[in-house]
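Changelog note: in this version the structure field was regenerated for every chain. One regenerated record is shown below for reference.
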Amino acid sequence: MYSNQDINEINARIRKNWLVLTPVLAALLAAYVYALAARVEWLAMVAGPLLFVAACYGILAYLWPNMRYRSFLLDMADGLSRDLRGTIVAIAETAEPQDGAMVLPVRVKLAPGKERDVPRASAASARLDMEADEDTQDERIVYLNASKRDAFPKPGAAVLLHCFGRHIKAVEAL
């Protein structure tokens, strides 16, 4: 689902944001420096706060989310992944932000008999887990990037999910 094209696209978006933000900040900084040098008090009082607001807004609204998403993509490419085999129960309709990406929560019912990746506290608790009812199935919530929804199987499909943390990295229909 993810490729180098995704990283290239986010890098291009970051470059574009810098190319727009830099001249605006340079013009406001030039006006502020001129106002201080020429002792034009009203211009300094206008240019200073505008410079601060433009820098904060440009960085926090445009650059920071894109840089955070790029960091997430780079971590996903290099990080450890795990496989989950199961059936898709439901896919949420509304996206929510997480780790710099807009994601859709996906409920997956794991296939029975698969070992859980939850650490056991003791041998006794492991034995009790093994003696538990085999009909109970483990259900997990993983996250699907909202922009990748079109290529994702529908609810009810048996899938093998390759996950990075709680995020779906790749999917294979079974």
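Spot check on this record: The chain has three helices and six strands. The longest helix spans residues 41-78.
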